Amino acid sequence: MVSSWSLACSNCTATHDATGLPTVCIDCGHPWLVRYETLPTLTMRELLASQPWTMWRYHPWLPLTRTEDAVSLGEGCTPLLPLPAIAQGLGLPHVWMKDEGQNPCGSFKVRGLSVAITRAILAGATQFVLPTAGNAGVAMAAYGARARMPVRIYAPHSTPPTLLAQMHHFGANLHLIDGHIGDCGKAAKAYAEETGATNLSTLQEPYRVEGKKTLGLEIAEQLGWKLPNCIIYPTGGGTGLIGMWKAFQELLESDWIHGPMPRLFSVQAEGCAPVVRAFEAGATSTEAWPEPVTSASGLRVPDPLGGKLMLSALRQSGGGAIAVSEAAIQQDTAYLMQQAGIDAAPEGSATLAALRQLVAEGVIQANESVVLFNTGAGWLYR
Ligand SMILES: *Cc1c(COP(=O)(O)O)cnc(C)c1O
After folding, report:
1. CATH number at residue 377
2. How far apart are CA 290 and CA 271, in angstroms?
3. Terminus of the chain with fewer CB atoms < 10 Å: N or C?
4. 306 located within any domain
5. Ligand 1: lining residues by beta carbon, under 6 Å
6. Considering only CA atoms, which residue is closest to atom 2 of ligand 1?
7. Are residues 90 and 49 in the same domain?
8. What is the pLDDT of residues 105-153, one digit of tens each?
9. pLDDT in tens, 178-194
10. Based on the structure, what is the number of domains in the chain?
11. Distances (CA, A) of 116 to 22, 47, 163, 203
């Protein structure tokens, strides 16, 4: 099957063809989303058995034509690990943790960057720039090396040192900024305008979300095409949440799954929770969070461009948004290491802390199955 697609604005009625590498909607500044001409038919589900064991097994769902090659390091196909003691302790039928820390570069960021870099190079890009809170920078550096293209990265001074060292050792040109990812975003934008480098900042191009979509496709396949009742996801820029929601809608539309859809829950840190605040206020868009602070650097995104899309996915799915404390994150990092053998990033541990809170509050109920997301490897933060 040859994928054929165009771009539709996520906010207004503007459209764009698939050529080149468009940034955001020219009319309203909101992100573009990919719209496929046709989705894979149900009979194609049987052909999955013969596909490679990477996220590119879902290539009919991805923006790649048959004659094109992906820039890949074998990303995706991470395990869905059961947490039976947690399930039993909380009185739930099933709790799983999708361990994205087992990806190349140790985080789920590789899914988005593999697709985005592939499309950017096909569109003629010769150098890249990216603002990062940590893991996106490592992935950008490694995939840039894989494609043998120069990479420039802007990261906060406060980024965990091991993450910075990885970027440096993968050969990126790394610039530290005294500020948060929003400040790095401004520097990256200025650099792109000055030099013509391609800016792969979150939701500033349409293809990272397509890579993140494979998170949703993979859970569906791993659970035998039956989705869990609830998914708890640590939310920063929001591409994971937006991508998964898009995957579930496309799967439903193509008859690969049937309802009900999972309830999506966004977890953020108490020191940076713009999505939680907007959700609780009943707002349709997020407002910038002043002075964001959290050890979960991937959640230190005070003003996400995809706020509106995230809030709409959370509400449409019947889910919610919840903030957890730094102490709860630390406790569940230790719990996961010592009681489950999982070296989770603080963002991943936050999903377990959130699950405990959501069960205690009666929001998640005794008959519901739950997938938690560990989005990265814990050792990168030490
Ligand atoms: C980037 C990142 C997040 C936030 O992900 P989004 O999909 O941008 O919301 C969460 N956890 C880790 C480890 C990250 O690197």
Report:
1. 3.40.50.1100
2. 9
3. C
4. yes
5. 107, 109, 134-136, 202, 234-240, 298, 345, 347, 375-376
6. 298
7. no
8. 999 999 999 999 999 999 999 999 999 999 999 999 999 999 999 999 9
9. 999 999 999 999 999 99
10. 3
11. 11, 25, 21, 10
